[in-house]
């Protein structure tokens, strides 16, 4: 099973019970377990996916190698710095859009256009073999424009909703990281399979609901209404966002441990940004629902 995040799709979970992230325990004949689709797997006979010249696992003790400093390999500092740059670009784009674009139908059209461009850029980066910082930052800028107009629209009706949504997003991300670091959640293939099955079902149901709304079959947004049913769906979406974060954390942790190239930190930042945008948008809707009509 692959990661929920498209930028990690080449480093996701294998279709067996092994974590394709970097499980290189040797088997008979020199093949490795759980290395399908893994660019950092230990080279061995019968393993066509083994491409990692850096993974030098201590096979005797089974301990993952640590990427030495100064070797061009990804570190946590790299991930933090790139994430700050990407999220910072989103914030700058949102602030400028909020300040310069008034709440109007033309602004809504511009926001939708920015969202579509951001989606296309995200898909292009997702299918590229290497990270493109310019592409990732461009995605962040257009995503910021969309979020700025979207947030201003909500703030015009529910004053203070964007600020509350930001705090809520930070709380979800922080709590998820603490739970993950404490070991209360173990990201295994079974965990990923169950979570991805729920996520796929959620996306499909949401897509069908959107079509029903567009064609007038479902009224007031259907499942995505601003009532109790919409609140339940929003809570489920935020929980799924937290699930995506745990997959992202695991991929980043394994990439650092097994010596992923430094440019992979851009992909990590890209993936985290998309997940946090997901959580923020759902949190904003949830805040609006609980705020009621003012």
Kindly report how far apart the N and C termini lie. 45 Å
Helix content: 55-70%
The residue ranges in which pLDDT falls below 50 over 5 or more consecutive positions are: 1-63, 65-70
**Most strands sheet:** none
Number of strands: 0
Summing up helix and strand content along with how strands pair, one would put the structural category as mainly alpha
Strand content bin? under 5%
Mean pLDDT: 79
Helix-strand pattern: HHHHHHH
What is the C-alpha radius of gyration, as a whole number of Å?
21 Å
Number of helices: 7
What would you call the shape?
globular
Care to describe what's here?
- This protein has 294 residues and is mainly alpha-helical.
- 61% of the residues lie in helices and 0% in strands.
- The chain has seven helices and no strands.
- Helix 2 runs antiparallel to helix 3 and helix 3 packs parallel to helix 7.
- The termini are far apart.
- The relative contact order is 0.17.
- The N terminus is likely disordered.
């Amino acid at each position: 099973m692959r990661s929920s995040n498209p930028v990690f799709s080449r480093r996701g979970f294998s279709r067996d019970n092994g974590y394709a992230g970097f499980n290189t325990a040797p088997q008979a004949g020199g093949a490795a377990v759980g290395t399908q689709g893994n660019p950092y797997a230990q080279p061995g006979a019968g393993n066509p996916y083994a491409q990692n010249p850096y993974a030098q696992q201590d096979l005797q003790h089974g301990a993952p190698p640590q990427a030495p400093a100064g070797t061009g390999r990804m570190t946590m500092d790299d991930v933090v710095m790139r994430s700050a740059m990407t999220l910072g670009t989103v914030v700058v784009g949102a602030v400028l859009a909020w300040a310069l674009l008034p709440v109007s139908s033309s602004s809504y059209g511009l926001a939708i256009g920015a969202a579509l461009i951001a989606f296309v850029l995200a898909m292009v980066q997702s299918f590229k073999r290497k990270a493109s910082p310019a592409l990732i930052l461009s995605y962040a800028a257009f995503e910021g424009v969309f979020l700025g107009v979207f947030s201003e629209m909500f703030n015009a009706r529910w004053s203070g909703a964007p600020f509350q949504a930001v705090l809520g997003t930070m709380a979800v991300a922080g709590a998820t990281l603490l739970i993950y670091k404490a070991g209360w959640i173990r990201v295994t293939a079974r965990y990923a399979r169950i979570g991805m099955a729920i996520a796929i079902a959620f996306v499909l149901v949401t897509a069908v609901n959107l079509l029903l709304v567009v064609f007038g079959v479902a009224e007031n947004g259907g499942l995505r209404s601003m009532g109790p049913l919409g609140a339940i769906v929003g809570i489920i979406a935020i929980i799924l966002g937290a699930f995506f974060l745990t997959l992202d954390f695991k991929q980043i942790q394994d990439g650092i441990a097994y010596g992923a190239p430094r440019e992979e930190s851009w992909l990590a930042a890209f993936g985290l940004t998309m997940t946090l945008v997901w959580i923020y948008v759902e949190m904003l809707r949830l805040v609006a629902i609980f705020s009621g009509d003012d």
